[in-house]
Amino acid sequence: MSFALVALLISRSFSLHERILAFSNNIEVRQAKFHPGSVQDGHILVLTSDNFLRLYKIENGEDQAVGTYQVGVQPMGRFPKTKVSFLEAFGDVAVDFDFAPPELQPGEQFVEKSLKTVDSENTISEKLEDLSITYSNLSANALSSTKIYPKRVTFEDEAKPIRKQPVMVTNSVRWPVLILYGNGDVYVTYVGFKSINTPTTIKGPLPMMPNVDEDFQQDFCSILCLHSTPPIVCLANCGGILLHTVLLPLEDDYEFTPDENRPNFVENPDQALYMFETVKLELGLSTSAEDVGHNCPILLHRNVGKVGHYFASHETGIHSININCVDDLHKFVSQTTVDTPEPDLFNLTSTAEYLICTKMATSEEVNPVIGFAIYYNPPSILALLGNGQLVSLTLAALFMIPTPDVLPADNLETRTSPLKQMLSEPFDVVIQKILKQSTTQPILKLPSTGPEPTQQECYELLQRASHVFREEYFKNHTKAREEIEKRLKTLTKLKEIQKADIEKIVQEKQKLQDKAESLAEKYEDIKDKQEEMSKRCEKLLILIAKRKAEPSNAEKEFMKELNEGEGKIETYKKAILKIKNVIKYQELQMKNWHQQTAKESSLGNAQIDAIKPNLEDMTRKITTMISEVNEYKAQLNLK
């Protein structure tokens, strides 16, 4: 018993300006893209064969024309019984467009933000001061090759100091549109949302530095602007050649060649394309050493999940292109300090992988790719072929999150030793780079119609596959094994060195502990001796003070106070002696009085009244004198 799973997909379509785009015999749609600046994703920009950009807004199921922008001379004459104009034959018709990163309208108001960053105006040109682009060389193989340009291009303008990031008060942002002509010229215009049939201001053509060879200046078909920092513009022609350029401000002293045939609405550009690399794609799987050329339109597709990576679809299959210098370019531009530019900034060559092949180079039968889409959950690509077959290919490796560096960024900048360079990247990343093949074996999806491949072609195809496995896969696995053994030996040796260091550290720790104990004992001895010495010093100071011939002022005052105290003591002694005599006299009087009272039976009232006041007065005086004596004793510290 078998089960079939059927998925029903319901989509909605709208007819867009049928009178011009659908029923016109002279106008063809070259490209259509959603405008990234649209808030509700309802604006579509359409490029037509009459050198016009038409902006439409879809709302409530109806299309509304927003603006029409002329981007070139309108074709007039055409070849008989065809839709091909004379201008198109010479490459003077726009064939594709793409949106560059948004810019601020000139004359906007800014406020400062607390976040510090590089000035947005002319940022890239300032950061790339004195930077020489060295044109790198892709390994010449069956899949990709690179044209070498010995000339260097330098970017001027001094780097300005870092200041606070400007923030725009209004929401006036314009989106540059890069327009590609068939002859390779690139123009820039700006498309807004407000007015209809606004006079178009187009700038171009953007100078290409260095100048492109004549072999490349034909049959350009696609343009793609990667929103990196700085923006990278990729151009493709029908011969399978990709041009990788950097979009930067133009030098102030650049001299434009006057052109009398240039339309009035075309102005001189203020930007230029600095080419740093070319890539040659293999259009059709070749089974022999002979390079059989094939011409077909190439469409470039952006990979939103990874900056610096895009796909190229064409009649003969699908290629995956990765620009490896984007990460280094980002790091260099984001530096806060102005350092000497790295000389190998553009030396990392781009890689081109043949993912799906739909044509043999020796055969005329083609199974073209008529539909292409990227699916991000899980990361994969979907391709619809001419025979109605839908191909799904998982590409999880292209969407991997970059692994952080093992060493800190500060140490990475100053690393010099081979060990630091070896440990600068995670080991799995190094192995992935080694196992990365420069030549891949694509998935074959050849057309089902037509004659079957001959035995010779099948044998050559088998030979090619075995050669790829032998030269790329097995060789890379051998390199990976050698790298693993090298890393193992290095880490083993490093482990032994670390063990020896640990033993030395333990020994040093024991020595330090013993030394600390001896120092503690010495400290206690020194402390006791110091206390003894301080006591001896005090005694010496006392003896010295005693033997001093002339007393000091403090000593004189103290002696004066002592003399005064002695005088007071003598006075108090005399007073006490007088009091004692008075007490003796009173005691004697009391004794005599008692004797007399004993002889007499009683005293009269008159006598008692006379004696009683005298006794009270004497008692009061005695009490007063005793308190004074006690006070004097307390002052003189006498017991």
TrEMBL record:
Q: Which UniProt keywords apply?
A: Coiled coil, mRNA transport, Nuclear pore complex, Nucleus, Protein transport, Translocation, Transport
Q: A GO molecular-function term, please?
A: structural constituent of nuclear pore
**Coiled coil feature spans:** 474-536
Gene Ontology annotations for the cellular component aspect, listed alphabetically:
nuclear pore
Instruction: Tell me the Pfam families matching this sequence.
Output: Nup88
Q: What is this protein called?
A: Nuclear pore component
Q: Does the keyword Protein transport apply?
A: yes
Q: Give the organism the record lists.
A: Popillia japonica (Japanese beetle)
Q: Which domain of life is it from?
A: Eukaryota
Primary subcellular site in the record, as a coarse category: nucleus
Localization in the cell: Nucleus, Nuclear pore complex
**InterPro entries (UniProt xref):** Nucleoporin_Nup88, NUP88/NUP82
Q: Name one GO biological process term.
A: ribosomal small subunit export from nucleus
What PANTHER family does the record tag this protein with?
NUCLEAR PORE COMPLEX PROTEIN NUP88, NUCLEOPORIN NUP84-RELATED
Say yes or no: keyword Protein transport present: yes
